[in-house]
Task: structure prediction
Amino acid sequence: MKKLALVSAAVLGFVANASAHLDTVNKSGFYVGLNGGYGFAKSKMNFGTSHQSHTLKGLIGGGQLGYQHDFGRVVGGLEIGTDFTKSHKKFNIKTANSTTPANTDTSQGKMTRKNDYSVALRVGYKVAPCWVAGVKLGYERNNFKYKALNTTANPAGAAVGTGKSVNKTFKHNGFVPGIYIDKLLNKQFLVGMEYGYGMFKQKTFVDANGDKIAHKPRTHDVKVRLGYKF
Result:
């Protein structure tokens, strides 16, 4: 028991010394990294007077490049990044044709969340040796692809609604606040976790069948990050 106690004390002392040493390491510098996690997108769509809401969820991953400066207890910096995902949702659509409101087109729709590009300001506080917790304020371009195929004809318009497919990529810009926590493993490598909530502007277009379609998404992304500091 005495030997076990001595070994345990030695290990704890080594970890404490290592942590104290890392806490004195200046965290300023450029860094690159990879990230991966899971994302949820709440997709709100308006088809004329019809309103639908769908949840797209799936894996998400990408990379980041940034610079941070160590101000003492505070670490701040700027980061750019990109993520990729193919989360999607299929659904049925029933819309009144804008030129002939009495008639209805029934469609099969599919919304797919694609890639995004972002820039973010990150500000953190050293809560413990090697640990930084903080917030991020970001601006993001998020792409969603909408696809629909009409399955019933418009009785009055004949060929207007019959089998006409619709393909549209919505390019949304929005504000993405979030929180994060990072741990410095050694002088170069760090790991962390991040949550971001995306709020994007509504986009509207009129499809080939005369239907006005509006899309307004909200996103929730949780990611694990691995970085290398130069």
